[in-house]
Amino acid sequence: MVRKLRIIVLLSLFGLFSMVSAPLIAYGYFDQLNSMKSETIPVGYWDFVMADPYTIMDEELITAFTNLYGVESLEELYQNPVFQTIMDAASKTTTGGSSYTEQGYIIQDVLVGGIHWDIQGVRVTSPGNASLGFMRQINREMNSSGSLIHAVLPQATATPLPYPEYNYFVASDVRNSLTNQTYGFRLDYQVAMTTNNPIANLSGISFYALRGLLSSSSEKMSDRTFVVQVSPTGEEGSFVIVGSTKTSTSVPVANEVFDPANPLSYPFPYYEFNLSADQISSMPAAGYYVRIVFDGGVSGNGSNATRSRLVIDDLKINQLG
User: Fold this and answer.
1) At 233, which helix (H) or strand (E)?
2) Which of helix, strand or coil describes residue 275?
3) Which end of the chain has a smaller Cβ tally under 10 Å, C or N?
4) Residue 112 forms beta bridges with which residues?
5) DSSP character at residue 158
6) pLDDT in tens, the chain (321 residues)
7) Within its chain, how far is the Cα of 124 from the centroid?
């Protein structure tokens, strides 16, 4: 797997204006383990291609969590005792409680599809069970043997890490055959995502979505509701529903369990939630805050409990005009 690197180019304006020849400019980059490396690149013209907006989403999630817990590296985050309880709770698939005792958390300023969102992971309990909402990047890259690199549900970190490409924020899942994209994102269990700022001239929101695959034959999942809401202020209690529906399994029962050696591709249902005429006419000049809520938390007693995960592809915020 090619590791994604965040590049920081250090340019000196004074040096650029005073150059007579074409020397080399130094730059540095940090990889995901925050190891500083030094290289040189030649001065010249560079073409920067706009990448898939989800290719560095894991870095967005990591940064949001390191900011939340005041740590500086991924290693420190994995070792943080509070985040370890989050990993424990977000990894549950069958009967059992967790060591996480808070009601949930909010990570801020996560760039998803070109829009900044606040992500809320909600803790849900039922007799003998617990779940905690979590957002993950979907990365369907494959190795040279044609098997998917990432697990459908990464296990909580251990020392040494479970496998070389391990990243708790990255998972694999079913591919949308209608777009055939490698990257996307998934809402695991009960999650709410709200835009940081209002969206002006909002007309609606659209995306493809499908219920995620089972991590094993012992896991129980069910179709759950997801809701699109808007608010003029972003304050709790002010959001109103634009539309809601339930996830669709669609995938044949024989293919419901994730198999990394046989990547599954399937057409996702397409959903479009448009504001009503009244909602549009009442929209403030600044626009509406947008919220997506997925009700995938644990439900039911003991071994009969179910959970759900929602894979989202090609998320678009649509605007008038």
Assistant:
1) none
2) coil
3) C
4) 115
5) -
6) 444 444 333 333 334 334 434 443 333 434 444 434 344 444 444 433 345 778 889 999 999 999 999 999 999 999 999 999 999 999 988 888 788 999 999 999 999 988 999 999 999 999 989 999 999 999 999 999 999 999 999 989 887 888 888 999 999 999 999 999 999 999 999 999 999 999 999 999 999 999 999 999 999 999 999 999 999 999 999 999 999 999 988 899 999 999 999 999 999 999 999 999 999 999 999 999 999 999 999 999 988 999 999 999 999 999 998
7) 19
Residue type, 64: A
Q: Which two tokens stand for residue 191?
A: 């999650």
> Distance (Å, rounded) from C-alpha 294 to C-alpha 297?
8
* Alpha carbon distances (Å) from 189 to 43, 235, 280, 282, 306: 48, 23, 31, 33, 10
* Helix, strand, coil percentages for the chain (3-state, nearest 5): 15, 40, 45
CA dist 18 and 260 (Å) reads 55
Q: Is 306 helix (H, G, I), strand (E, B) or coil?
A: strand
Of 31, 3, 36, 110, residue with least CA distance to 67? 110
Local structure of 79: helix, strand or coil: helix
CA distance 83 to 153: 17
Pairing state of beta strands 190-195 and 265-266? unpaired
Those residues whose C-beta lies under 8 Å from the C-beta of residue 83, and which sit 6 or more positions away, are: 65, 69, 77
pTM (two decimals): 0.84
Asked if residue 125 lies in contact with residue 94, where contact means CB atoms within 8 angstroms, the answer is: no
In three-state secondary structure terms, 281 is helix
